[in-house]
Write a structure and sequence with these properties.
The structure holds 2 protein chains of 2 kinds.
Chain A (H helix, E strand, L loop, with lengths): L2 H14 L1 H38 L4 E6 L3 E2 L2 E2 L10 H10 L3 E16 L2 E10 L3 H4 L4 E4 L4 H5 L4 E4 L1 H7 L9 E4 L2 E9 L14 E5 H8 L8 E6 L5 H15 L10 E5 H44 L1 H9 L4 H38 L7 H27 L3 H6 L2
Parallel strand pairs in A: 5-10, 7-9
Antiparallel strand pairs in A: 1-11, 1-12, 2-3, 4-5, 4-8, 4-11, 6-9, 7-10, 8-9
Helix pairs in contact in A: 1-11, 2-9, 2-11, 2-12, 3-8, 9-11, 9-12, 11-12
Chain B lengths: L8 E14 L2 E14 L3 E5 L6 H8 L7 E6 L2 E2 L5 H11 E4 L11 H11 L4 H14 L15 H13 L5 E5 L7 H16 L4 E5 L2 H4 L4 E6 L2 E7 L1
Parallel strand pairs in B: 3-8, 3-9, 6-7, 7-8
Antiparallel strand pairs in B: 1-2, 1-4, 4-5, 9-10
Classes of the chains: A alpha+beta, B alpha/beta.
């Protein structure tokens, strides 16, 4: 029996009971659609987090003030500012794997220019910060060592600030007021656009670290965080060790005591992310397994009914020369076709659902063709697995009994 | 009894027995039947229900195997073949005509007739041509695309006969072919069998109706699994 004839016989049988075939396939359709759309959403979420992590810059690491124990009570990270500007200078001087480093002080404030105003994030940073975060300067200049030394009242603004405070005009040379003090705008950061999670990376203003310490912290040089980059991707781990050694020595931490700082690399963040997405994948796999199992049982059930209904047909086919193998293939083709069609429609539905969700909820979704192919292939396997028993039962019928069946 | 060389015999059966076990009871459905059917013969096997004629038909039709005895179909010993091999024999050597027609529903006459050729692996074009030819032979050349539900009982039985003929079998095996038909249509169908026999087809007809048996050249009557009488030549 040629494959083409087999397919024609199969589709004629499936079309004879359209409603029944559709309902049977529905079990697989819903299962596959649920899995495909969920995979699409988790992949989308992971991609956006990954791109956010890499948007940080190249080979970037961050050092936070860590938790300290005081009389046995441990505080959370950053609650005690154990890092100072001197620490950053020591790291820059003593760690060969570190390419550039910038302490940062996080501030916030209302910006005023003429009669417009805008609230934004403000950072006190070193000149190297622009390169570490891979922003670049689109207009004017970045502040330099001279500005740092003199705690100059200059600032560099992001594109969103330009759009909102200066209505898109070139702001270089203008003077804005931050907390009543005037700052001269000397440059504009290159636009990075939105992060994949929808966060605007251009809504910020940076001022020299020394200015931030002097004007906002009363000369206190304690800093929130140090951001830096390693000389290469493979040197990140080495840099981490060197920094740890330098900081432990400077903070006089005993051999058995915990660090009072935390170093985080992009790899650490990715790893944590990877772990949670793996948990999600396991969850999805079990949902997929259960739904395909239920769908498969539905197929087996209907195929058993179909074999019973068509006992006489099977008898006739056997009498005129169908071998057991021909009958087996005939019924197996039907169950595989049901499952595979269910799988294909499920993928289509799943893609539609995740596309709708991306549109309505603004989540990024991504469905790889590979995942779709696996879903369809797997439903085919379900068709074979659950179709085999009914098909075999049909092929083992005694032609005499089958012909006599009413 | 005729003892020609087996090649001239379409059916050459020796001492066939078939024993069914029902719990502790043994039922001898066939009890030593010896039968020769030469090529071109038209033989009716008569008998009441329970006489063993269905069992004999199943064995002749290679749907069942005898408990003992030998059976040569067109010179082939089919007593020892496996199920797939028997399916192949049925496909190539035997054309079945059933009492209930047994056509596939919602399938055209042409496709019903093509069915045996599907299992013998003929190409689509060949299937189509041979099925058309067979339907013309039974007088249904005008109704190729009709579905079985659109045909009368007599027409359905003609389609079934065309299906039996299409693979050019050595033997046409008809089981109560007129059982579901009225008298007038029965006569037409029997006339068709006689015509096919005159054209050289070997036919074995199983029936319980004496007057239907009269259309055959020869009649054997079974009772209790044994041949009771033979007449005609």
């Amino acid at each position: 029996m040629s494959f083409l004839v087999l397919l024609r016989v199969c589709f004629r049988a499936l079309l004879r009971n359209k409603m029944r075939s559709a309902l049977t396939a529905l079990g697989i359709i819903i299962g596959v659609a649920a899995v495909v759309s969920m995979v699409g959403m988790t992949t989308g979420a992971r991609n956006s987090v990954q791109s956010q992590i890499s948007a940080l810059g190249d080979n970037v690491f961050m050092i936070f003030s860590g938790s300290v124990s005081r009389s046995g009570a441990r505080t959370s990270w950053g609650s005690v500012q154990s890092l100072t500007e001197k620490d950053a200078e020591a790291i820059a001087a003593q760690c060969p794997s570190v390419k550039a480093i910038s302490p940062t002080i996080r501030l916030s404030g209302q910006l005023v220019f003429g009669n417009s105003n805008w609230a934004t994030q403000m950072w006190g940073v070193a000149p190297e910060w622009v390169d570490i975060r891979s922003y670049g300067i689109s207009s004017g200049r970045m502040f330099n060592e001279t500005d740092m030394r003199g705690a100059a009242k200059v600032c560099v603004v992001g594109q969103t600030v330009v759009d909102n405070l200066f209505e898109g005009n070139d702001p270089v040379g203008s003077v804005i007021r931050v907390r009543r003090l005037p700052y001269e705008v000397i440059g504009v950061l290159g636009a990075k656009g939105q992060s994949a999670m929808g966060q605007d990376q251009d809504d910020l203003l940076i001022i020299p670290l020394s200015t931030a310490a002097k004007k906002f912290q009363g000369g206190n040089t304690r800093i929130n965080m140090v951001i830096g980059s390693a000389v290469s991707g493979s040197a990140v781990e080495q840099a981490q060790e060197e920094i740890s050694d330098v900081l432990r020595a400077r903070h006089r931490i005993g051999r058995n005591d915990d660090d009072d700082f935390v170093i985080r690399t992009q790899a650490d963040i990715s790893e944590a992310m990877e772990e949670s997405s793996q948990t999600m994948s396991m969850l999805l796999a079990s949902v997929a397994f259960v739904s395909l199992l239920v769908g498969g049982i539905g197929i087996m059930n209907i195929m058993l009914v179909s074999v019973t209904e068509r006992t006489r047909e099977i008898g006739v086919r056997m009498a005129i020369g169908a071998r057991p193998r021909d009958i087996l293939l005939q019924f197996l083709t039907e169950s595989v076709a049901l499952a595979a069609i269910g799988g294909i429609l499920g993928v289509v539905l799943g893609v539609a659902v995740s596309a709708t969700i991306s549109k309505l909820a603004g989540w990024a979704t991504a469905i790889s063709p590979m995942a779709a192919l696996v879903a369809v292939g797997f439903s085919g396997v379900v068709g074979i697995f659950f179709g085999f028993y009914p098909a075999r039962k049909a092929s083992l019928l005694d032609p005499i009994e089958a012909l006599r069946y009413e | 009894m005729n003892d020609n060389s087996s090649a001239a015999q379409v059916i050459s059966a020796r001492d066939l027995t078939k024993i069914y076990r029902m719990g502790d009871v043994e039922v001898r459905a066939l009890d030593g039947v010896t039968l020769d059917v030469p090529r071109g013969d038209f033989i009716a096997i008569l008998g009441a229900s329970g006489s063993g004629k269905s069992t004999l038909m199943n064995i002749i039709g290679c749907l069942d195997r005898p408990t003992s005895g030998t059976y040569l179909l067109d010179g082939h010993d089919v007593g020892t073949l496996s199920r797939p091999q028997l399916a192949g024999i049925r496909n190539r050597f035997i054309g079945f005509v059933f009492q209930g027609f047994n056509l596939l529903s919602r399938t055209s006459a042409l496709e019903n007739v093509e069915l045996p050729l599907i299992y013998s692996g003929h190409s689509g074009r060949e299937r189509h041509e041979r099925a058309k030819e067979a339907l013309e032979r039974v007088g249904l050349g005008e109704r190729l695309t009709h579905h079985s539900s659109q045909l009368s009982g007599g027409q359905q039985q003609r389609v079934a006969i065309a299906r039996a003929l299409v693979n050019r079998p050595a033997l046409l095996l008809a089981d109560e072919p007129t059982g579901n038909l009225d008298t007038r249509t029965s006569l037409e169908i029997m006339a068709l069998f006689q015509q096919l026999n005159r054209d050289g087809m070997t036919i074995v007809l199983i029936t319980h109706e004496q007057d239907i048996g009269e259309f055959a050249r020869r009649r054997i009557t079974l009772r209790d699994g044994r041949i009771l009488s033979e007449e005609g030549a």
